[in-house]
């Protein structure tokens, strides 16, 4: 799965109707609603949209015939294996009716072109882990953790015997990284996976 790094847009004219797609990354449902409200044009005939976050998704045809706008936009998101993404496609009617098939192609196609042009980043599932390490192990441990791809130290709290580190590590590599911590500290590090 991938998500977008920043907002992206694409516009095109189809039979005198102007379509503008704006896509962006979102963290939750409220962020998606805010994005939709911010990027809906008041002077447009239709502001159709779709968003997906994991198993949660929503779409809206905003007055277009049922299933001809929001669902094709969602299919464009899913077709490019995107997650945590919202797309708004705005239509200014140009006087020529497109029919159901034409609307599906116009909305889905505009959304797909917008998403294809957008800069994407791979979503890596992460796990948060706490590690209590002694002062004697701390420097080497932090250096090795910094060299582990995708691993980051999100918090560090010093205690009388050393420090408690909070790590964000890729879930797929969690066992290997934690085994490295155990080996490096000869089992002295206390690992909290809760």
CATH 2nd-level architecture of the largest domain: 2-Layer Sandwich
Q: From the alpha-carbon coordinates, what is the Rg to the nearest angstrom?
A: 23 Å
Number of domains: 2
The strand line-up of the biggest sheet is: 2-3-6-4-5
Please state the average pLDDT score: 94
Organism: Rhizobium lusitanum
GO molecular function: guanyl ribonucleotide binding; ribonucleoside triphosphate phosphatase activity
Family: Belongs to the IMPACT family.
Protein name: Putative YigZ family protein
Describe this structure in words.
GO terms for molecular function: guanyl ribonucleotide binding; ribonucleoside triphosphate phosphatase activity. There is one protein chain. α2 packs parallel to α3. 33% of the residues lie in helices and 37% in strands. With 194 residues, the protein is an alpha+beta fold. The longest helix is centred in the middle third of the chain and has 19 residues. It has 2 domains: 121 residues, Impact, N-terminal domain (Ribosomal Protein S5, domain 2, 2-Layer Sandwich); 67 residues, Alpha-Beta Plaits (2-Layer Sandwich). The strands form 3 sheets. It has a 5-stranded antiparallel beta sheet, sandwiched between helices. A 4-stranded antiparallel beta sheet has the order 9-10-8-11. The protein is rod-shaped.
